[in-house]
Amino acid sequence: MRILLVSATDLQGGAGRATYRLHNSLLDANIDSHMLVQRKKSSDNKVIGPSSKINQIISTLRSYIDGLPLKIYTRKTATMFSILWLPFSSIPSKINTINPDIVHIHWMGAGMLSLEDFTKINAPIVLSLHDMWAFTGGCHYDENCNGYKSGCGNCKVLGSQKEYDLSKKIFQTKEKNFSQINNLTLVGLSRWIEKSSKESIIFKNKRVVNIPNPIDINIFRPFDKNSSRDLWSLPKNKKLILFGAMSATTDLRKGFLELSEAVNDLKGKDLELVVFGSNKPLNNINLNLKIHYLGNIDNDEGLAKLYSAADVMIVPSLQENLSNSIMESLSCGTPVVGFNIGGNSDMIEHKKNGYLSAPFKPDSLKSGIEWVLNSPNYNQLCKNARNKVMHEFDSKVVAKKYIKLYEEILK
User: Fold this and answer.
1) Are 330 and 306 in contact (CB under 8 A)?
2) Torsion sign (Cα): 92, 115, 84, 189
3) Which domains does the chain have, with CATH numbers?
4) Helix ranges, 232-336 (H)
5) Alpha helices per DSSP H over 116-184
6) Can you give the pTM of this predicted structure?
7) Cβ atoms < 10 Å from Cβ of 354
8) For a surface tag, which of 25, 72, 82, 177 has the fewest beta carbons within 10 Å of its beta carbon?
9) pLDDT tens for residues 124-143?
10) Orientation of helix 324-331 relative to helix 13-28, angle to 10°
């Protein structure tokens, strides 16, 4: 069985990294897996990227040009919005030349192909829902507007007051093209996004299954706390609160404002905050505790040791599908506090391996942090965190679920 995973990247971004983990999980299970990407960062010879410098430049230009229509929406929010309108992509022909048994498409932003290109693929398609983009009018998260249930328009993310705006046009194009694909299976990575996609106009008549991303528990595992703190030059006599994400302090959806308010009210001189995924901002953020900014971390082992160095991980996202950070932290035996939204409850079991706070309430987030840090059963929380991932998200466990799905489709 030959599987082709298609993603804009292999090692960049949450979806790209998750796709590459699935690729390796399938290889370990003796499945003939390949990846097709727009931007290749790995040295893996089974990952197919642009074949020349010119193609790399074209890929970069496509990403830029694809976003140009957004320029007219001057009141657009910071939420990511992808159009996929550029014609003349070589991706469908590359896919058909490779001739896989299954094409498993993942994150498709950055102008890699057009919406019409989906209909040109010969093999059965599996489409993983890493966010909401596939069933919205272009936003990757809808800021809770629920427009995908009615057809979009008057787009909140675009800051649009018009019914027939860009989101409406994209929505109708998706509806038209996805309806033409008979052998299409959707994978909701969390129960939340599985349910949301089934409620959408675009996918209400399509098959949707719930299978999570995999994680390598041999890479993301508990390390000695003191030596991990030595590695990152972090203090050993403090309780460390960890927060991290892509654009951690600038993407409002990641909840840094809510986190700031929560930790500002924490009592105790023994607490410090560690932030990764963002450098120290130009405008200094004044909190009642010291902040360590570690920037972007590309090395998984280094990241695992950072999780191990922390006492608690905070994921205060306002919308979230299946957070890599939550899964990674739990796998390293570090409890997680997050709002009870999206797919967080798929991984965080309230007061068993972390704490599910009341949505968007900094006071509740603060209570969760204090509950974890002061728990008399803290060591058991850490064991529960690790066990949750080992039993439900380990790459060997998850790979079997995907292989079973592929076999069902081929039958």
Assistant:
1) no
2) negative
3) 2-214+394-410 (3.40.50.2000), 225-392 (3.40.50.2000)
4) 256-264, 300-309, 324-331
5) 166-179
6) 0.92
7) 30
8) 72
9) 999 999 999 999 999 999 99
10) 50
